[in-house]
Amino acid sequence: MTTGVVVGAGPNGLAAAIKLARHGVDVRVLEASDTIGGGARSSELTVPGVIHDHCSAFHPLGVGSPFWKELALHRYGLTWQWPEIDCAHPLDDGTAGLLYQSIEATAVGLGLDAGRWRGAVGDLAAEFDDLAQDLLRPVLNIPRHPIRLARFGPRAVLPATAMARWFRTEEARALFGGAAAHIYTRLDRPLTASLGLMILASGHRYGWPVAQGGSGAITQALAAALRAHGGRITTGVTVTRREDIPDADIVMLDLSPAGVLGIYGDVIPGRIKRSYRRYRQGSSAFKVDFAIEGDIPWTNPDCGRAGTVHLGGTFAEIADTERQRAQGTMVQRPFVLVGQQYVADPTRSASNVNPIWAYAHVPFGYTGDATDAVVNQIERFAPGFRDRITATVSTSTTELHDYNRNFVGGDIIGGANDRLQVIFRPRVAVDPYAIGVPGVYLCSQSAPPGAGVHGLCGYYAAQSALRWLRTRRAH
């Protein structure tokens, strides 16, 4: 029987294992931590009974993932929950851009920009499933929907700063800017409009849901699906050298390129080794979890109905702070994401104490304490927030790396999203999952299509491994 070993039990490692197991491979997953999940874990971080997500929180690409839908993860206990408003972006004057799953409700709320919002993302939302088939896989492939891809292309290649000029109101520009900032690089670079448009389109197609009970419920469902197909998971096993990996026909690595080099560097071909060494990290976060009494006292009350709240002020301010961050400067008012998962999933709260999830964009490898910067940015749009805090847990970039060794320097998205690396990761190749060692493949978020709890990095890496296996058998 064909055997496979997967190193790492994050969503992509589990997805790769499931794909292999469904094709008859005897799969074993090795996880260094005592619990599975990678960036999709949840626990009581602050006070008993209050559930916090450790990293990933909202899943617009997860609920729409073709692989998750194929697996029907609801059969394994996963339940999605949606907030009334997916995302809010407040401004200092008390107004806010509001993202609803309904494109019409969003457009109406943007007033003068109603028609422009529909024009910017309406067709992308309507065609999202087809677009995703081409965009959420390696770039160097024959497009399945070339006409739709061609319509998206002129917008995708723009800098976010250029796309923002399409809108006339500060609310619409800020709402777009907050989504665009998820690309985690300066917004005046080509292609930086692409991710913002895709996140907004996926939101209008599927919403920005949370997993009931915490993001860890996603990986628990994946683990159940894997076991149902005969796969096994062993925790507490650290792999730092090839001798730590049991003999197998296929090895899948849910690791960073640096982690792959540490294990296979002496046998990887020179050209691939050089690409891995050149691979750039750069998307660091500083995370803060709060337990608060009641709700955040937002100046704009609509923000209290939103699952996600982007804090950064106007688009111009976001663009400026992201530019400074990319240049290594820690600004006083960083871009901050706030998660109010309990709005959609009340099971995360304990009585009147609610969990608040937040993180700031900080320079790569930032060694300081950004807790006050996060609190001040929330207080800026919600005066009195500080008085409602009952517990705080901060996680620095170093602690994020310690928590998950794929988060190099606190980089939670698996690599810098700038220059050619935004579309070619971890290297320019028709098969970017192959590391140049027969039967060994990279399946982490450092491979296409990149960050997000969608499992597609693992799915496509496993597809590559299965193609190699068929070729080997044919010979």
Key features of this structure:
single chain; 475 residues; alpha/beta; 7-stranded mixed sheet; 17 helices; 16% strand
Specify the CATH architecture of the largest domain: Alpha-Beta Complex
Number of helices: 17
Roughly what fraction of the amino acids lie in strands?
15-25%
CATH classification class of the largest domain: Alpha Beta
What is the CATH T-level topology of the largest domain?
A: Polyamine Oxidase, Chain A, domain 2
**Poorly predicted regions:** none
Q: Calculate the mean pLDDT score and round it.
A: 93
Biggest sheet overview: 7 strands, mixed
Structural class: alpha/beta
**Could you tell me how far the N terminus lies from the C terminus, measured between alpha carbons in angstroms?**
17 Å
The structural domain count equals 2
**Strand count:** 16
Over the alpha carbons, how many angstroms does the gyration radius reach?
A: 21 Å
Outline = globular
Strand order in space, largest sheet? 7-6-12-13-14-11-15
Pfam families: NAD_binding_8 (PF13450)
InterPro entries: FAD/NAD-bd_sf
Protein name: FAD-dependent oxidoreductase
